[in-house]
Each structure stands twice: as C-alpha cells, then as structure tokens.
Amino acid sequence: MAVRVQSEAFDAAAEMAALTAGREDIGAVASFTGLVRGGAIRAMTLEHYPGMTERALAAIEAEAHRRWPLKASLIVHRVGRLLPGEPIVLVAAASEGRHAAFEAAAFLMDYLKTDAPFWKCEERADGTSDWVDAREADGTAKARWG
Amino acid sequence: MAVRVQSEAFDAAAEMAALTAGREDIGAVASFTGLVRGGAIRAMTLEHYPGMTERALAAIEAEAHRRWPLKASLIVHRVGRLLPGEPIVLVAAASEGRHAAFEAAAFLMDYLKTDAPFWKCEERADGTSDWVDAREADGTAKARWG
Amino acid sequence: MRVLYFAWVRERAGCAAEDVAPGAGVTTVSDLADFLAQLSPGHAAAFADRTRLRVAVNQEQAGFDSPVAANDEVAFFPPMTGG
Amino acid sequence: MRVLYFAWVRERAGCAAEDVAPGAGVTTVSDLADFLAQLSPGHAAAFADRTRLRVAVNQEQAGFDSPVAANDEVAFFPPMTGG
C-alpha cells in the first residue's frame, strides 16, 4: 500500500514494475493512468489540500483492501501545472485474480474523483482559464460501489 | 491497435509508455498484466496455435474498438516456458475517459481467456506437470458482455 | 479557528487561509459561513451559493450542519475534480 | 486435410499435426473425429470424451457439426486457458 502526492512527473511503467518486483504471489495487476488531454487545453493546474489529500487517499486505498483481497496497491497523483500528454494520476491494484484487480482499480479511481481534495484549473488555448466543474457522472460512478 | 505473440519477455511499463507517447488525445489508459504465480508452481509453459492466435487476438481487439471509442489498444501474450513472477499477458486500452478504458481492458481479458488459443501447462514443485483446466468462471465472465 | 479556501473559493475570498475568532455564537459550519461571508465582498461572493461549496472539518469531509469549535481547521472548496 | 492437435490432445494423439485423407464419407467435424479416433490407441484416448474437446476449422472456432472439406485445416484442442 502506498499513496503519493507530488509535483514531479512519474514513470507509470517503472511504478508498476516496482509493484510486482520480486513478488511471486501476484497473478494480476490492473492499472489506470489519467493524462492531460490537449486540443482546447494548453495546460492543467492541479491544486490540492495538503494533509487532507494524503489522508483521503490512504482511506480510499484502505477501503479497497477491505473490499478485495489485494496483494499490493498504489496511488500516485500529481499537483501543479501539467501539459497535454503528461500523466496526472496512476492507480494500480494487484491480486491473485483479475476480477479483484480490475474492480479495485476502478473503485480507487471512482472514489479518488469524488473524495480526494484535488481541483483542476484548465488553461485554454485562447488564454482564458477556468476551474473544471465536477461531473455528475462521477457521483454516479462512485454510487455503484454501494 | 496492436497484437503480438512472443516468447521473449516484455516490459509492460515500456509497452504502456509507447502506447501514449507523443499523443495528446488520450485521457485514460487502463491496463492489465497477468503474471505467473509461484507457490506450488515451479514454471508454466504456454502453448498456442500459431496463425489462429493472431487472428483471434486481432478479432477480439477489433470487437473492443467497435464497442468502445478507443484511441489505442495493445495485446501482448507470451508463449513458451515462464517462471513465477514473469508476465504472461499485457492488455491496455486507451480512450478519452476512464470508463471506456476500464471496460475495454476487462473485455479484452475476458475474451482472450475463452477465445484465444493458448493452453497452460503447470510444472509443480513436486516435479509433476499438468494442463490447466479451463475455469467455468471464465465463460461466465465473457457472457456478461452479451 | 483556522479557515482554508481552495480553487475558486480561494480566488473569491482573496486568500488561501485565515485565522478567525468568530465568537461563541458560531457553533456550526453554517454559522461560520455566515460569519465569513460578511468579512469582505470577496468573501460574500465565495459564500453566495452554498450548494456549490463543500466543507471539511479537521481534514474530514463534513456538512454545513457539522459542529465547529475554536481549535478546528475548517476548509471550504468546490466539489473535487481530481484524477 | 490437415489436422492439428494442441495441449493434452496433442500428447494423447502422439503428434502435433498430420495430413489425412478420410474419404468422401467424412463431411463434418464429427465424421472426421470418428475417422481419427480409430487411427491409434492414442487417438482413441484423445477423442474419448468429446465434451472436453474444442474445434477450429481453418483457424476459426467451429463445432462438431461444422462441415469439413479436403483442403481444410482442422484443429482439436481443450478449452483455452490463456491470459
């Protein structure tokens, strides 16, 4: 179990490799990487609530371990100004079988979206910028876990 | 879209990095890595049906692209003799949003399990070896996609 | 009482954090919001539509009816948009 | 007709591939299985329980009722266990 919040870029590949390195008890790793999309967006700045963020992420990760028999897990979330193509978040869940791994990774993302204190501000190509509105769909996605 | 069958080890991290390299239109990448579990197993040998395997994997990948708006995808599956801790399979699905990516990655795995001509033979620690039986749960998992 | 603001709430309030002593009449988050809203026009704008605000008391999600006390850390922010 | 065997079906049949000419009476996979089963005791063992076998004709999944013709590639194998 590990949770990190950082402004530095992360190497999703290396993070996932580290998750299973030297382990022989992991049969399945599901991961999710969220990236900044370009197009109308020139950059994305992520603000967070230091202290509460780490607590919230650790609580979400602990809840995933309560619900599924996970062998390992990881949440890495960046803050600060990110450019299109850069990774924002990585979650990974490792277990014996694939269903637990897939479900836990989706669960981590759904809860992170609604319960972890991060806020995105988009800089658009026309020079304006604005805070991203929360999506109702994210509340719905969380609700499916009961 | 890419499908590969190979006896060489693969670097799941590098494969995933290549999937999004230079892209600004991908917001979400979900991946799954299956690994050989140790414990009672000393090694796992994967046999396949050359020709049909590639066709089956390409058909599964094409079906995923029909069902979800994917920006990229990847299936890499190893054959030959693998040791505990080694990766067997990597699937990844990239899209704008996370739900399509998660669902497509799970779909790829469920179909691969039942429709791609691979067979596992386990070498146990006691020196015996045996072909792995198909799991009924894999048929159930595939059936949920309709 | 330590009050924190994030995202556009911070921008409207004009500060990221402030220490306030709202007095004994302020016993809930709602009371505190009433008190903060009259500190400046920016604060008033920040608290104009409370349906758009979320709250944490001592770094745990809370509601406008949650109690607050003198040594609490209370944060106001929009719905979260990470990930 | 090219016949392929995989996994324990290959081990029982004693070969991975063989070319056969079963004659005009063999028009379905089921007919072909009957023909192959009498080639050797190993073949008989391979085809003893057809509920445990899966079939592909020309590298597409097929059934025991699927038609087969002289130039087809027909493969017999257990349910797949990849991934």
Low-pLDDT runs of chain C: none
Largest sheet of chain C: 5 strands, mixed
CATH superfamily of chain C: Beta-grasp domain
Find the CATH superfamily of chain A. Answer: Molybdopterin biosynthesis MoaE subunit
Count of distinct structural domains of chain C:
1
- Count of separate DSSP helical elements of chain A: 4
- What's the N-to-C terminus distance of chain A? 23 Å
In the CATH hierarchy, the architecture of chain A is: Alpha-Beta Complex
Query: What strand line-up does the widest sheet of chain A have?
Result: 1-4-6-2
Helix content of chain C: 25-40%
CATH class of chain C: Alpha Beta
What is the count of structural domains of chain A? 1
CATH architecture of chain C: Roll
How would you describe the shape of chain C?
Answer: globular
- The fraction of residues in strands of chain C falls at 15-25%
Give the topology string of chain C: H per helix, E per strand.
EHEHHEEE
Q: How are the strands ordered across the major sheet of chain C?
A: 2-1-5-3-4
State the oligomer.
heterotetramer
Class derived from helix and strand content of chain C = alpha+beta
- The percentage helix of chain A is 25-40%
